[in-house]
From TrEMBL:
HAMAP family: MenA_1. GO terms for biological process: menaquinone biosynthetic process; vitamin K biosynthetic process. Its main location: membrane. Keywords: Cell membrane, Membrane, Menaquinone biosynthesis, Transferase, Transmembrane, Transmembrane helix. InterPro entries: MenA (IPR004657), UbiA_prenyltransferase (IPR000537), UbiA_sf (IPR044878), UBIAD1 (IPR026046). The lineage of its organism: unclassified sequences, metagenomes, ecological metagenomes. This is Unannotated protein. It comes from freshwater metagenome. It is found in: Membrane.
Length: 296
């Protein structure tokens, strides 16, 4: 069980949690609710959170399986991989990935039946994107497009989608607030790929970090960690949710991983940076959620 939990990569799970809580909070009060929950529907929030978590775990297992059978993870620096390390059989890891995707599909179907059929299309696209990130004959993650997938599905889609299942419409706030959320999710992948540049280069895995090179990847990471703090005060001010700007104070935590990246941390030294990036993302999301909800 410890191996399966490690293979699910808990440090990446804030990328699933944050867009759901932020998107849900952004929808608070938009349907005119005057109760303590401001019109939010609890079961839909829980369902959206389960879908996001299941998709994240499914992507992690699918990536583990596909990279493992290709030999990409044979000499990898970083958290343990189930397939590459030989801890689990490839078939078992593949089944775990499909089980997670299947769970997300079932719960997502319930949300679609309660709101709109187009969620089925979005969900199918998310599952397909999760599998073909490193799976299939031409994985797009090997072509440097992984960051785009993360920004779109764990940023825009997850945030705006979580708001949609509450109010059944897309608003300027739910779209705009998804941008900083997506940036933090993308930063997780960028620092992960920064650590893996040497190994990925050897096996021909041309991630965006490999294509940009070490220096420019570090600049991209810093941008993704700083830009949300610049954007959120403007977004919250324009949307008349000023309390959401309190998330600006989380920049004090962001200093830690940003400084390590700027100082040139490499290899195993970047593993703690991944954890710190997740903590910053989670803290930012929690404070932003509180501000958006109170102001809703």
């Amino acid at each position: 069980m410890k191996d399966w939990i490690a293979g699910a990569r808990p440090r990446t799970l804030p990328a699933a949690v944050v867009p759901v809580i932020v998107g849900t909070a952004a929808a608070a009060g938009m349907n005119g609710g005057t109760d303590a929950l401001k019109g939010l529907i609890v079961w839909r929030f829980v369902a959206a959170l389960l879908v996001a978590l299941a998709l994240q775990v499914g992507v992690n297992y699918a990536n583990d399986y596909s990279d493992g059978i290709r030999g990409t993870d044979d000499d990898r620096v970083g958290p343990m991989r189930l397939t590459g390390s030989g801890a689990k059989r490839p078939g078992a890891v593949k089944r775990a990935a499909f089980a997670a995707f299947g769970f997300a599909a079932v719960v997502g179907l319930a949300l679609a039946l309660a709101t709109s059929w187009w969620l089925i299309v979005v969900g199918a696209a998310a599952i397909a994107a999760g599998w073909f990130y490193t799976g299939g004959p031409r994985p797009y993650g090997y072509a440097g497009l992984g960051e785009a997938f993360v920004f779109v599905f764990f940023g825009v889609v997850a945030t705006a989608g979580s708001a949609f299942v509450q109010i059944e419409r897309i608003t300027p706030l739910t779209l705009l607030i998804s941008i900083p959320v997506g940036m933090f999710a993308t930063a997780l992948l960028v620092v992960n790929n920064l650590r893996d540049i040497p190994g990925d280069t050897e096996v021909g895995k041309n991630t965006l970090a490999v294509r940009l090179g070490d220096k420019r990847t570090r600049i991209l990471y810093v941008f993704l960690m700083v830009a949300p703090f610049v954007a959120v005060p403007f977004i919250c001010g324009l949307a008349d949710r000023p309390l959401g700007a309190a998330s600006l104070f989380v920049i004090l935590l962001a200093r830690i991983p940003v400084q390590k990246v700027l100082e040139g941390a490499r290899g195993a030294a970047l593993i703690p940076v991944l954890g710190w990036t997740g903590r910053v993302q989670l803290a930012f999301g929690v404070v932003l959620t509180a501000g958006l909800f109170i102001g809703g």
